[in-house]
Amino acid sequence: MSARSELELAGQVIDLVRRIGGPDVAAEAVVTRADLALTRFANSFIHQNVAESGVAVRLRVHVDGRTAAANGSSVSPEGVRTLVERTLTAARLGPPDPAWPGLTAATPTPSSGPVDEATAYADPDQRAERVRAFVDAAGGLETAGYCRTTHRSSGFANSAGHSAYGHAVEAAMDGIARAGSADGVARLCADRLADLDGAVLGARAAAKARAAVDPVELPPGRYEVVFEPAAVADLLQNLSWYGFNGKRHAERQSFAEPGVAQFDPAVTVVDDPLSAVDLPFDVEGTPRRRLTLVEAGTTRAVVHDRRTAAAAGTHSTGHGIAGGASFGPIPRNLRLLGRDRADGDADGTAGLPTVGAVADRDTAALVAQVERGLLVSDLWYTRVLDPKSLVVTGLTRNGVWLVEDGQVTSAVRDFRFTESYPRALGPGRVLGVGREPVRQPDRLDGVWWTAPPLRLAAWNFTGGASG
Prior knowledge:
Mean pLDDT: 93
Structural class: alpha+beta
Low-confidence stretches: 341-354
Strand order of the largest sheet: 3-2-1-4-5-6
Strand content: 35-45%
């Protein structure tokens, strides 16, 4: 498919719906081309290089008071016709949909920024160069991870006369270094492959792994903590899925109370999809924009798609996703603003020192203020126990250290924790926020969490990781 042909195909799908289903059918189509290339390494060797390119067509129709959606991967005339006929049949056989919010009206949509061609069409050798640099910088430690590049272009059209086009690129690297049974991690997501320095990331992972050997065991309890950006990313992800989701808010399954000071004044959280190169519209064609969710500790908003917005008597915030009728709208590009840095997009990695457990100056500044507490690299396997209060249980990994009088004194065995994320970030509980947010990659393309390191007054560790 040629440039902008996704938009042309989306329009053709809508024309076909009208011819087959009649002029009264409401329909929207999204055609997305995705090119993903991934270079994996393990045991300090590249063991897999894969690339895939595919086109997906998503069609949603509303006819006779009923709604249905379907996806297809065939863009041949026969494949498109089959998708249209199947979706129309499913709609006529489905249950009534009294909450149908209608289609997005024709409205101006921001254009995508220029994409980095070198990233969009990166070859395996360019990713392998970064893997080699990561492995070499680890100084003989065993390493594993990946380097990936993605390029997406998407066209939208609906029967209300609205259309939009956008494209996006992303590069990400995520790797560990292992010293015995101790792991150190480094990861970064960027708009350009050129911004991923494998040597910097490999040296950081190796330094943290070496600093994590011979851990001591500490008793469970509430400890002051400094979370590195990777751990803060987990906080943002769970706040996003379970807290700022407009459907969960309407069902009273969210902690969010707009207008209430639920967080410490140091906390400002925005959904910032266009701070990096990303698609300028959601799956319903609604333009995307920066939205402040928490401002200086006060919850300001939850996000909406067209369905939840209609129920709430407001407008969509551009957060429609496929499957949103079931799960609800989700802000997928949350940013915790750094201290004294309310604008710009700083990754905060270039030229920063790597000294043992402390990966950068930003984290070092927070650690230096801790009388007795823990430095935590990463949280994982987190599961929500209570959506309303957002009580989450999970594990630490990739390094935990005891901090005494502002200095890292020893590595610590991993913990299990159980904590309410909003409570831990509540008034008076955030003791420090770093200056430089670091964009962390997600498993899903086009999803990222951007955060500085964070110092919290207390975190509830309930036992050892094996307990």
